[in-house]
Amino acid sequence: MVFKFLRAQNGDCTIIKYTDDSGTKRNIIIDAGLYAAYFDPATNTFGDLKTEVDDIKGNNQKIDLLILTHIDNDHICGFLKLFEMDTEISGFIRKVWFNFGKLIAEKIKEEENKLLTIKMHRPGLVSTGVAEGIDFEDFLLNYKFWQRELILSGQTHHLDDAKFEILGPTIPQLRKLLKEYQDKTQDDVYTSGTGNDWSTNVAAFIQEEGPKYKFSQDTSVKNGSSISFILTLKGKKFVFLGDSHPYPVAEALSVLGHTSENPLEVEFLKVSHHGSKANNNKELLAALITENYMISTNSMGHGHPHKRTLSRIITRNPDAIFHFNYENVREGIFNEADRKAYNIRARLTPFILFKI
Prior knowledge:
The protein is α/β, with parallel strands linked by helices. 27% of the residues lie in helices and 21% in strands. The protein has two domains: 2-150; 171-349, no CATH class. It has an eight-stranded mixed beta sheet. A six-stranded mixed beta sheet has the order 7-6-3-2-1-20, with no helix packed on it.
């Protein structure tokens, strides 16, 4: 069982590969980063996602589940490029999860928000300029792998040997997405706390965040709509949070019986929103026990991960291991004072292997 955290620029792209109890090789892809994760038009080069997809196809396997957690560019654009450039890919996908704008509006009986429409070039076109586009939702409707089901907090889904306990989003969060989303930008620069805080020492953050500290949650309705879940596979549990908001996820964990008094033990936590300080609070972190914290980003554009978040994790677990998929983040976020004061364990981790 292998978890690969692909280099997806400042985005997320995770691939899970395992062999089920019947001996069939399975593949799950969670998000796809920016365009360059699949193909970078600026350099005319293919990325790691293209290599992984070609390997799946070359071995006559399937993408058993493709999860698009939410509509931010740094999570979905690699998928758009995949569907545009690989005209055979539809034959290799079994199932897709994506809470689309039209689908949300239909299922919860609210007015559609036209700004949530996602456009893509017609398959086979590689032009990055203005070209005839189609709605991504209309494109997926042509295929049986998208079953138009809303993925919601409280649900449990089974796919072969894999179990998914959905932590988010909630219907109120999706309703808020429909009512409040405004297309200010094609990036997520408007979401959560921006700016690099790496020059501040861990000790200063820990001291500051005493009993009177007031946490400020991310206000992005896009991020709040993220699909987040507990994955149980081969008897082990893993948590993937997308860019989700911490309060609703902590509430979902509490409903399942997991709080600071009875935390859920997991192999690793895929930290929300690339380690943003506005998406990971102490309540959420206290509801989970793990040694391993996964953070995916090259830190370009938004200052993620925030050292304030990592300081909260150190407070929760002084023996935490931080896993990064970019060397500049691993090397740059902790300074000499941090390393002297704390047992900092920061690793470059492009993949994790579990031998079952």
